[in-house]
């Protein structure tokens, strides 16, 4: 039977003829649509806030800023450097931190030192102009009490201390 079957001529015609036509795909509408989509612009300059009370320790500063526009921002770049009274203050090393939020805590700073701080915003289109520069100050180091110089009597006490800071301290608060 198999031999007879293989000798038969088989008709391989398909019952429905596929219609293949040569098609050219026109992407002009897609290209026009893609060109009409607006790309997001680079963000505007952030506005840095003045130093808030209790926003500093002897070695850290908490810095806050904001945006006055609805810009798309992926992250912020915070730059800072110590303020110097010397004429060559541009020689001071600038440090840069990245932040996702509109605030950042800078650590490993010197006590009782002024720092110049500015912020830029970044997105896929580029970087914003920097904010205005603000000056923040770290808290002074606690003074060292000179225990050998302490004197007291019935109604008074004499306590002496010295500052560990390079820059002068405005005032001290003594608590009993």
Automatic annotation (TrEMBL):
Alphabetized SUPFAM superfamilies for the sequence = Fibronectin type III
Q: Name one Pfam family in it.
A: fn3
> In this protein, which residues make up the domain named Fibronectin type-III?
46-142
Q: Which PANTHER family does the record cross-reference, listed alphabetically?
A: E3 UBIQUITIN-PROTEIN LIGASE TRIM36-RELATED, FIBRONECTIN TYPE III AND SPRY DOMAIN-CONTAINING PROTEIN 2
This chain belongs to the protein called: FSD2 protein
